[in-house]
Amino acid sequence: MKRSIILFLAAAFAVACAEEVKVPFELDSDEIHVGPEGGMRTIRLSVGEPWTAMTNEPWIAVSPANGKGSEDCLVMIDSTIVNGMRDDVVRIQTESGKYKEFTVVQDGFSHQINISNPLVEIKDFDVLDKRKFDVVVNTNVDFEVVIPEEHSWLTCRKPSDVDKILDRGARPRNVTVAFEWKVNPTSDMRNVDVKFMAKNVDGEVKADVLKVSQGNAPDIESFKGTPAGDSLALLSISRFLGCWSEFDTGVKMERWEGVTIHKTGKNKGRVKSAQFVFFETDESIPYAVKYLTAAEELYFFSNVNSFRKSLSLGDDICTLTELKRLTVFAYGLTELSDNISQMKNLRYLDLSGNNFSSVPKGLKDCESLKALFLTSNQRSVIADLSNSIKKDIGGLVDECPEDGSGNRKFPKWLLEWDQLDTLRLSVNYLQGTLPTDEELINDGFKAWDVNSFDPESSEVNIKDSLGTEGIKFFTENRVPMVLPDIDFFAINLNKLHGDIPNWLKYHPKLDYWFPLLLVFPQEGKDAAGNVAGFNNVPTNLNYYYEIYKNKKWSESNIVN
Q1: I need a labelling partner for 381 at 20 to 30 A (CA). Which of 25, 121, 322, 417 fits?
Q2: Residue 64 DSSP symbol
Q3: 168 has pLDDT over 80
Q4: Strand, coil or helix: 412
C-alpha cells in the first residue's frame, strides 16, 4: 500500500514538472507608450525558465531585472530631456536563448512657457517694499518678458542664472520672475497683458500671457482746485509717506492738525499750509502734492533712518508756483529736481538734516529765494576726516575739493550769491581756508567804498555806522564787499582753518550773526589732517565796535 502511494506521488510530480516546462513564453504587450513626464508601467511576463531583462538606454529600468518564472515586471521611464519622440527596445531573454521584445515609446516635450498664476491683481498703492510680486514660469526655453511701453509703471527682472536653471534639455524647470510696480496716481484702473516670448527657438511655442490688473486711486483730478481736492491730496500724501499719525477725517479740514486754510480771497477754504511729520518713505515727495496749488508753506519733517537714504525731492512739488516757504528736514535728500527753479515765489528753503554732498547749484536759478538752510547734512559724525575711509558721507564735503596741491578753499560761488539774506551752512564738512581779501578782489569782488553815497547801495549802511577809525580802516584796506545784504550767515562747526579774512571779520552785519557761536567755532580735523579752527578768533567783538562806533552794541557779542 505504501509503495503504491509513493509511486503515485512520484508520477504526479513528474507530470507537474512537465507542465511547468511547457509554460508558453509570452508578454501581455509589445509596446508601452508614455508622455514626456515618464512614469511607471506594468508588463506581464509568462515564462517557464529563468530569464533576464536587457535595455540599452539609461532612461528605462525594469524591476525585477531577472527571475526564474512568470512575473509582473515594473517598467520605470524617466522624464525626457528632448523635444522629439524617443524609443527603445527592451529584450527579455531566457536561459535557453529564447527572447521576447517590447518597445518603449516616449513623447517629447513641446516648447512651452507656462505661468503658475496668469492673473495678478494689485492695489493702487502700497509701501515701496511691498510693491512687487513674483511669477513662477515653468518653461524649457529661454524667454524675454515683453511689457508694452505705455505701461512703464510695471517692470520685471529675470534671474541672472536662467541658463543654469534651464540646463536640463527639454525638461521644463521653474523660473521665478520678479515684478515691481508703481503707484497708480489716476482714478482709472490699469490693465496690461505681459507676454513671454521664446528666444532662439524655431517652431511653435505654447506661451501663457500674464494679465496684471491694478486698482484705481481716489479721484483727486476731478476735484483739483477745490477744498475737496486739497483734502484728498493731504490724505494721499499722508498715506504715501506712511505718516505715524493720520488726519482726523471726522472733522472739517480746517481743524486737521498741522493744516491751515485760506480764510478769504479766491482760494478761500483751500490749504494755505500743511505739515507732515514722522513718517517712513524711500521715495520722493508724493505726486499728490501737485494738487496743493494754493499752498504757501509746506513742512516735511523726520523720515525714518533718513541718514541712510539717497532720495530726490522729485518734480511734482516743483509745480507749486505759489509756494513761499518749504521745509524738507531729515528726509534723506541727496538731490533736487532740475525743475526747482519753476517755484517762482519760493523765498525760504530749509533742507537741513539731509545728505547733500554739495549745495545744489540749481538753487541759484530760484529768482525769489532769500533764505537757504543747509545745516547738518552729515550722514554720520566724523571728527577726523583724515582717519576715516567712509564714502558718501554728505556734509557738503564735495564743495571743497582739492586744488591739485592738497589745498582746499571755501566755495567762492556761495559768496557771490547776493540775492540771499540768510545762508546757514553749520555742522557740515566744509574744509580748507576762507578766500583771502586779495583773492576775492582779484576775482572781481568790489571793495567797500565809504566815500560813495548811493541811497540804493549797501555802502550807505556801512558809512553811517562807521566812526572815524572805521572810515580810516576801510579807506586804507581794500575789503571785499561779500554778501553785502545778508542778514544771517552761519558756518560754525565745519572743518575750516587758517585766518579769518577782513571781509568776514569786519562785515557790516557780523554782529547780527552771533559770530562767537555761529561763525568762528570749528571742530575736528579735515581730510589732510589739519586741525579745524581759525588762527585769529577774537574773544569778543570789542575790536569790531571800535570800528563801528555808531552801532548799538549787542550784549551777546561782548565777552569780558
Answers
A1: 417
A2: S
A3: no
A4: helix
Nearest 5°: the CA angle 187, 191, 193 is 165
Dihedral, CA of residue 79, residue 83, residue 85 and residue 91, to nearest 10: -40
Q: Whole-angstrom Cα distance, residue 533 to residue 434? A: 11
Sign of CA dihedral 466, 468, 469, 471: positive
Rg of the chain over Cα atoms, rounded to whole angstroms, equals 42
Q: Using CA atoms of 308, 310, 311, 312 in order, give the dihedral in degrees to the nearest 10.
A: 150
Going by their DSSP bridges, the two strands 86-94 and 99-106 should be labelled as antiparallel
Question: Which three cell numbers mark 116?
Answer: 503658475
Query: How far is the CA of 163 from the CAs of 139, 175, 209, in angstroms?
Result: 12, 10, 22
List the strands of the sheet with 31-34, edge to edge: 31-34, 99-106, 86-94, 51-54, 66-67
d(CA 214, CA 154): 10
Distance from the Cα of residue 216 to its chain's centroid: 24
Q: What is the mean pLDDT of residues 74-100?
A: 90
How many other β-carbons are positioned within 10 Å of the β-carbon of residue 316?
19
Report the alpha-carbon distance of residue 29 to residue 21 in Å, rounded: 22
Residues 6+ apart with CB under 8 A from 95: 49, 50, 51
What are 294's three cell numbers? 494754493
Question: Is the separation of the CB atoms in 521 and 455 below 8 Å?
Answer: no
pLDDT for 560: 46
Write the single-letter amino acid at 523.
E
Q: Is the peptide bond before 480 cis (omega within 30 degrees of 0)?
A: no
With residues binned 3-state (H G I as helix, E B as strand, rest as coil), the percentages for the chain, rounded to 5, are 20, 30, 50
DSSP string, 441-499: HHTTPPBP-TT---TTSTHHHHHHH--HHHHHHHHHS--B--STT-SEEE-TTSEEEEP
Selection from 102, 42, 47 nearest residue 69 by Cα:
47
Q: Which of 554, 552, 557, 549 is nearest to 471 (CA)?
A: 549
Q: Where are the beta strands (DSSP E) in 12-85?
A: 26-27, 31-34, 39-46, 51-54, 60-63, 66-67, 71-77
Could you identify the residue written with the cell 527571475?
67
pLDDT in tens, 321-352: 999 999 999 999 999 999 999 999 999 999 99
- The count of other CB atoms within 10 Å of the CB of residue 413 is 10
Which three three-digit cell numbers place residue 376?
547738518
Q: Counting Cβ atoms within 10 Å, is residue 1 exposed (0-12), middle (13-18) or buried (19+)? A: exposed
Give tens-digit pLDDT for 43-59: 999 999 999 999 988 99
